[in-house]
Write a structure and sequence with these properties.
two-stranded antiparallel ribbon; 13 helices; mainly alpha; three-stranded antiparallel sheet; globular
């Protein structure tokens, strides 16, 4: 859990010392914190992954409380999340106050940042879903870069994925597109998994680009919707995850892809201890309610048992023959 001297990135959830965050930005996604003259903090969270989210130290203004919902709290440090889409005048006001800032992330070693890759991934997804087509070798390689930057970095996977030929990638992805058009998600994942370096998790990433019915098999989303279940990167486990995410999304009016994205955010918060003060209060309230319910149930059960005993005694007394009085 982050403390006053630490900060959890609002983009990827990584926790690190506040000083390092302010001077260098997040090591994982390059999101940057700025220290203002009044010691308040703002984080650039205008990336495609978390568009519209901002972080503040002291959101005390009335317009903040009106348009923003406090999403987390640490002593002297607030994290604030936009509750719905803000009107343009409020966005302009936020920008003028230096709350929403232009991205400051720079390319490291000539490679694209997570935010840049995420923006590209979303654009690619929109294009492919609107006009279904096979993915290219370059697109597979770039999607693998996104996956490894967002999760655990395994350079060998990148090399294996890039070892597939252009023809192999196009054939497999075209076949997957055709299968997804017939709602055969699991079969599509099987076909994509035949590519070198592509298991069910990466296959689901490719599938999510092609269709909103294919959720990405992310660790954090899995942990949130399947609590207590040990993840295994197998087709069978993905089938289980798929069924749960689809049902979870339907309850909330979300597509499978949208459901996974929300579950990932919640999973990241759980993973890095970003439970909000409000959530803690709710949990405490629930605990108290449960205690009260248990007391009430015990009381009711005891009352009913007493009633039953009285009833039984009454019945027994009626059934027993009356004792003759001695004269």
């Amino acid at each position: 859990m982050s403390t006053r001297t630490e900060r959890a990135c609002m983009l990827c959830g990584i926790v690190q010392p506040l000083k390092a965050f302010i001077s260098k930005g997040c090591p994982n996604c390059d999101s940057v914190l700025d220290m203002k003259a009044d010691d308040s903090l703002t984080q650039d969270c205008t990336s495609p992954s978390f568009e519209g989210q901002v972080a503040l130290c002291d959101p005390s203004s009335s317009w903040v409380s009106k348009w923003l919902r406090i999403d987390g709290f640490q002593p002297g440090l607030y994290a604030v999340k936009v509750n719905g889409k803000l009107p343009q005048d409020i966005v302009d006001d936020l920008k003028s106050k230096g709350v929403l800032k232009a991205a400051k992330s720079a390319k490291k070693g000539g490679k694209e940042t997570l935010a840049e890759l995420d923006k590209w991934r979303k654009t690619l997804s929109e294009e492919v879903r609107a006009d279904p087509r096979a993915l290219s070798h370059a697109e597979l390689a770039k999607l693998m870069q996104w996956k490894l930057k967002r999760g655990t970095f395994r350079p060998k996977l990148q090399q294996l994925a890039e070892s597939n030929s252009e023809e192999e990638v196009e054939q497999a992805t075209q076949k997957a597109v055709d299968l997804l058009a017939k709602d055969e998600t699991v079969e599509a994942i099987k076909v994509l998994s035949d590519l070198k370096g592509v298991g069910p998790a990466t296959a689901s990433l490719l599938g999510s680009v092609m269709s909103t019915n294919v959720p990405f098999f992310s660790d954090e989303a899995f942990a949130h919707v399947c609590p207590g279940v040990k993840i295994a990167y197998t087709l069978k486990m993905y089938e289980r995850f798929l069924a749960v995410v689809v049902a979870w999304g339907e309850e909330r009016g979300l597509s499978a892809v949208e459901a996974e994205e929300q579950a990932w955010v919640l999973g990241m918060r759980e993973k890095y201890g970003q439970t909000t003060k409000g959530e803690k209060d709710v949990k405490e309230d629930v605990k108290e309610d449960v205690k009260e319910d248990k007391k009430a149930v015990k009381k009711a059960v005891k009352k009913e048992s007493v009633k039953e005993e009285i009833k039984e005694e009454s019945t027994d007394s009626k059934e027993r023959p009356a004792k003759r009085r001695r004269k």
